[in-house]
Amino acid sequence: MTIDPLAPRTILPAVLSIIRDTWRQLVFVDVLAKAIGLLAVTPAVTLLFRLAAARRGSAVLTDEEILWFVLSPFGLVVLLVVGAVVLWVLFAQHGAILAIAHATSAGSRMTALWAYGVVMRRGAAVLRLAAGLVLRLLLLSAPFVGAMAAVYLALLSGFDINYYLATRPPAFWIAGTLIALLALLLAVTLGIALVRWLCALPVLLFERVGVRTAFRRSVALTAGRRRAISGWLLTWAAASFAVASLLTGAVGAIGRLLVPQGSRSLAVVAVAVGVVFAVAVLLNLVISVVVAAQLGVLAERLYVGCGGTGEPLLAFGTPPRERAPASAGRVSRRALAAGLVAALVAVVAVVAWAASTVRVEDSTEITAHRGSSATAPENTLAAVEQAIADGADWVEIDVQELSDGTVVVLHDRDLKRLGGMPLTVAGSTYEELREVDVGSWFASEFADQRVPTLEQVLDLCRGHARVTIELKYYGALGTLAERVIRIVEEEEMASEVALMSLKHEAVRHMQTLRPGWTVGVLTAVALGNVARLDADFLA
């Protein structure tokens, strides 16, 4: 009777047995991988992104700058290099686990350091393999990403994206369906490719071949077995997700029990948060070790089951038993538990001490986003009036420049969402805009609301609330900052106004025009230390 080498009764007992026998080495492999990432990868990645930021004339990249950087040739090269380096660290960890599992299944014992030696002996080839994998995945993804972009441009670029998100017309659902199908096809394509290349790393390490040969041999080894391999990998992913969800839920439950809601004692809250943080770090370490160990050992068994014949010990010379005793570096369960308890106690003690020595000044101000936009149509005089009535300290508004130079208060680049009209702000005059009802969409009693000018909002807020003005550069005139500054100075409200923008270059321009004014950067994501942004505040 022929036994299927990829059958559950063959693979599962072997995986569990290897993990049980080598769990100490696997923990050490994970710790070393994190150390390598911290000491080698982090500085390299930081340097590359600093070079990217320097090309943009800033120490930090924000929203749009990140997008344009990624789409630039230099950005694509940086992404390829960073991806290869990060993947190299992951491959080093994965390769060390493969070596330990392969040696164990052959009846030998391999220490974690020796396993990393097996990988580092072929470190340059592993890096080329990582770069090759990143490049292959990017090339496979490019047509799908291009098709998604084409769908977006064809169906969702006619009006401001907020119109599609708010009203969800048929074009929104058609585009969403097409993009979802393309994303699914992309995921399937990448999944099939990764299954085909699953054995490339063990082939490279154990059979001592070149990178291209490793890819080709992996494709040959997995041929006819990809359905079974996919089943095992999906099982691993589901099990990992279940374990991670369970432990994450446990941390959340502990947090809800320990962190007192509404406590007036900062020290109590800080200690409770410290305990939860320590538990979270410990559980994340457990998840990391378990998930990586499962994948590495499973991949080694699948490699052998597909017919892989490489020998890790012969690939690196003298068997490790002769050079490093099997007991070297072992840590007893009692010592490990004592160390974890000591670390937990230390974290709690440090947090408690820090909380008792820190003075906290509670100074909170309330900003009404686009006016009181929960109870009145956004960016209208009604919303501003309600925000003042509610006692808001600041009223946040969005301003744009019309084709006639008028500065109006409006968020979207057109009036499709708020007024049902296809008028673009940049291509309209104030005479055209003030005829549009921008309040009925919210409630019938606001049918009299029109797009206000910046002067009208400032007049309303003077003496009642300060104003945060976000500059939106949809207009073609390019004089928005100058016009806003002129209006604010004419209204004599420079001390009651803060300016901000998504465009970092615009923020620097405003600072050049009025160095003493309060100017901030609005960003959702950033690369670099946002504390180094040359701005008065971050939104």
List keywords for this structure.
539 residues; alpha/beta; 7-stranded mixed beta sheet; 20 helices; 63% helix; globular
Account of the 3D structure:
- This protein is α/β, with parallel strands linked by helices.
- The protein has 20 helices and 9 strands.
- The chain has helices at residues 8-55, 63-71, 73-105, 112-121, 123-155, 161-167, 170-196, 200-206, 211-222, 226-258, 266-305, 312-315, 320-323, 333-357, 381-390, 416-419, 430-433, 454-461, 480-490, 504-513, and strands at 61-62, 367-369, 394-401, 407-409, 466-471, 497-501, 518-521, 526-527, 537-538.
- The strands form 2 sheets. Strands 2, 3, 4, 5, 6, 7 and 9 form a 7-stranded mixed β-sheet that branches. It has a two-stranded antiparallel ribbon with strand order 1-8.
- β6 (497-501), α20 (504-513) and β7 form a beta-alpha-beta unit.
- The longest helix has 48 residues, at 8-55.
